[in-house]
Amino acid sequence: MPDNRQQDFSLSSNVAISVRNLWKKYHLNKQDHASIPKEAYRKENRNPQEFEALKDVTFDLMNGDVVGIIGSNGSGKTTLLRILSEITKPTSGEALINGTVTSILDIGSNFHPDLTGYENTLMQLRVRDVAKSEYAELLKKIRHFSGIEDFFEQPVKYYSNGMFLRLAFSVAFHISADILILDEVLSVGDEGFRLKSQTLIKQFKLAGKTILFVSHNRNEILELCDKCLWLDRGSVRKVGTPTEVLGEYFEMQRGNYEAEQKTDNGNLSEALVSQALNDGLDIQWPGDDAPGNDFFVVRNVTVLQAGQSARLYTSDDIEISMVIEKKKTGGSVGALLIVSDVFYQPVLIANLLNNATKENFVGAFADTTGLLELKCTIPGNFLAQGVYYTLARFGIDAKEGEKNSPHDYHLQENLKFRLHNKPGNFDFIGGSVNGSVRPAFKWTYTKK
User: Fold this and answer.
1) Does position 429 have pLDDT exceeding 80, yes or no?
2) How do strand 386-394 and strand 409-420 relate by DSSP bridges?
3) Which residues are bridge partners to 301 per DSSP?
4) Residue 380 within any structural domain of the chain
5) Exposure string over 257-276, b if 16+ CB within 10 A, otherwise e
6) What are the beta bridge partners of residue 391?
7) Residue 318 and residue 244 share a domain
8) Cβ atoms of 185 and 153 closer than 8 Å
C-alpha cells in the first residue's frame, strides 16, 4: 500500500487529488492485441502498435468527496486508479495527491499466498507503521469485520475470491489513510457485509477522508457518492452529481443496445426515429405496419402537454394517449401503463380499471369494434426531470393460472419521453436527493 503524500502540494489544502492532462499510452507487440478489451481497441488509433488507455484526463477532487467512477469495459477506469495508487506511471501529465493512499485494485494484492490472514494483516500493519500498541485491537476489528473468522488462521491461498477481497477491504478500512481507492470490490460478500462496508464509507466521509471507487452497481453510487466521474474511451465524458451522470450514462447504454437490436433484427421503426426530435411522443402506425394481434391493433401513441410534444415540463400535466383499433367483439378493453425511469426501475403503474372517477370499465366496449382512444393524465409536479420509458399493455381476460390471453397485447416499442424543469420554477429538492416521484403535496404549518 504505497504512501503517495505530496509534500510540495501547491494547490489548496482542501484539494485531495488534482489530475492534470493525464495521458497513458501502451506500446504493443502483435501478440498483445488479443488481450486488449474489444471496447478499448479503437479504430481511431492510427498506430496499431500504440494504445491510448487515458487521453488528456483532468479533474479535481476535494477532501471528503466520495466519487464513483463509471464507464464501459476498456474505458480506462482501472488504469486511472493504478496511476493514482502509484502502481503505474503516466505517459504524460501529473496526478498530485494530498495525503496517504490505501488502495485495493486486484484480488490478493498486498497479500502473500502462503501466509495466513492473521500474518498478512500483521504484515500490513507493520508496513504502514502502525504503533505496536494498536496491533491487538486492530487485528480483532479486522478479523470481525471481514467475517472470515475461523479462516483468519488459514493460508490465504485457500481463500475464495470473496474472502480475499473481504479481508483486503477490512484491512484497508481499518488502517488510517486520507484517501481510499477501490476497484469493483464494494459488491463483495453478503448483504450484511455490504451494509457494514457502506456504513464505514459514510463514516470515512464524515471524517473528511476521500474515497474513489469503480462500480457497475448504480445503487452503490447513488447511495454513497456525492460525485460521479464518467470515463469514455479514455477521456472524461462528464463529472457531476450521481443522478445526472448516471442518468446520461444509462440512457446512452440503453439507446446503443436498442439501436443494435433493431439493426440486427432489420426492423428499425421509422416512426420511432422521430422521437429524437422531441421530448414527448407522437407516433402513428398506418396500415399494416401497426403493431398488435388478432384482437387489438395500436394506431397512435402520444405523450403531450397542451397538445404539443416539443418540450415537456415537470410542472404541467402529462397526457398519455393511445388509439387502438378493436378488431373483434367480446372481451374487455383494459389498458395498463408501466412508466420506468432511466435506470429501468418502475416509477408508476397506471391502470384503466383503477381510475380516479371510480368508473367500472370492466365490461366497457365489449361489444364494440373500431377505433378507441384511451387517455391517462399524470398530474404536474409529480415526476422529477429526466428520461422515462413507457410500456403499454392492452386487454385483460386471462384465465386463472394463465399469464396471457388471446385478448392481451404488449406493445414492445421503446416509448421514451423526457421532462425538464420549467425556466423560473425552482426545484428545492435539486439533484442532491434521488427519486423520480416528487409530488407537490399540500402542506400547512401552524404556530402552537
Assistant:
1) no
2) antiparallel
3) 283, 322
4) yes
5) eeeeebeeeeeeeebbeebe
6) 338
7) no
8) no
